[in-house]
């Protein structure tokens, strides 16, 4: 036993292990620029591969009936199957590319226009209601603040209309500049999407082979790596299906409802619904309730305001309690608030990839802890 231990801890083995770590670090550095592409192509592959493999199995069964069953033609048959697999992979990738690029381009162009319209609408509102933005209109409140602060807070000299107009103009300029920058980097965005789809193609065609290479290259027990890979698949499916897709559906329905009820800048409100679905407690109700109330009390359209609230409650909010649990068949075993924090922390640390990586790191920690406790329990027995 002592010889075996000394053999394992020999200088050659230690040097080999250090060399392996250094090479592994260099590989991570080399792949770092493609980190975003690899993560999202992996997630897309996890989501699409079940449908891809199902259609491929149907085609394979049809080919088995049509192709000559003879040992002499085995290589020929396998080549035909591989060609069909490649063509199907290309069709899937092309469909995914079009489904991402076309709606995204339309949404972004319309969204940026509506953002600019907000500034115009606010300026028009200020000009039409100058009395509301005059400091004299709030004279009693201004005097009250001045008295309780012993003269420290003096708003009497404040030109409220000028300050608000200046702020809105700055906001409009910022939106315009950022929109121009994004349009200028549109080619870069399309290239990134293309590389994601390009990587997805190889994951669909040779996914199992690449997975086996990845598992065999990590010096950890194969069973544990399989558990980690399984957890990553579970997290990806749960986050994308149970959160992102449901949120997109809710935002799409909400946007349609806002459009029907003639809400100005409906795309922006729909986008806010998408973001709010990730926030615990308030959720999307934090967007459509104020809109409904503004319809009732500000616009004076009580009937439309009540119908807007009922429509959003039935067709948007209720999806949280019906569709989300159905799609979340694989639960993350994490409180929604922890998932929300994990997503925020992940986005802050890893960018957009953090939506998946944040919750995955949380779950990976608890998985490693479970394995450690299991090993400890086994050793004690």
Q: How are helices and strands ordered from N to C? A: HHHHHHHHHHHHHH
- Overall average residue pLDDT: 81
The count of helical stretches stands at: 14
The backbone outline, from C-alpha atoms, is globular
Computed CA radius of gyration, to the nearest angstrom: 29 Å
The major β-sheet equals: none
Report the β-strand fraction as a percent range: under 5%
Name the helicity range.
over 70%
Given as residue ranges, the uncertain stretches (5+ residues, pLDDT < 50) are 1-6
Kindly state the number of beta strands: 0
For the terminal residues, how far apart are their CA atoms? Answer: 22 Å
Structural class: mainly alpha
Commentary on this structure:
This protein has 14 helices and no strands. The chain has helices at residues 2-8, 11-31, 35-66, 74-128, 139-148, 160-184, 186-217, 222-260, 266-276, 285-298, 302-315, 323-327, 336-350, 354-380.
Supply database-style keywords.
disordered N terminus; mainly alpha; 381 residues
